[in-house]
Amino acid sequence: MGGSDSDDGVSDSDESEGDQRSYPDGSGGNRPDEKFVGPNGALRAVQANRALPLADIVTIARRLTNGQIIDARLRPVKGVLQYELKVLETNSEVSRYSFNARTGKLIRVR
């Protein structure tokens, strides 16, 4: 599959499991951040200095919560790459922590 013009070898194992790679041929998804989505997107973003390594974001998150991180994703939101960490809090509720991927700044908790 992978019919986008800027392929960059992304299509070798692009069986994205629900990640936001739902722009089959650029329809509505021509943003440059698109190449940072998918199985190797975070690696490419870190190599391009567009995002901190996930380990750095996890370290920041652990200072903010005692909960268990159960999921982490990198996604473009309004032209900004964000890490979203899903956390199982100590009170058994699930929270989502959104961080600016480049700076590590907390954007919001929901």
Please render the helix and strand layout as text.
Layout: H1 41-47, H2 54-64, E1 68-77, E2 80-88, E3 94-100, E4 106-109
Antiparallel strand pairs: 1-2, 2-3, 3-4
| Residue share in β-strands | 25-35%
Uncertain ranges: 1-30
Strand order of the largest sheet: 1-2-3-4
Mean pLDDT level: 78
Total helices: the number is 2
**Straight-line N-to-C gap:** 35 Å
Order of helices and strands: HHEEEE
Mass-distribution shape: elongated
Going by helix content, strand content and strand pairing, the class is: alpha+beta
The total of beta strands comes to: 4
Helicity, as a percent range? 10-25%
Radius of gyration: 15 Å
Q: Tell me about the biggest sheet?
A: 4 strands, antiparallel
Describe this structure in words.
It contains 2 helices and 4 strands, in the order ααββββ. With 110 residues, it is of the alpha+beta class. Strands 1-2-3-4 form a 4-stranded antiparallel sheet, covered by helices on one side. The chain is elongated and about 35 Å long. The N terminus is likely disordered.
In brief:
This protein has 110 residues and is of the alpha+beta class. It has helices at 41-47, 54-64, and strands spanning 68-77, 80-88, 94-100, 106-109.
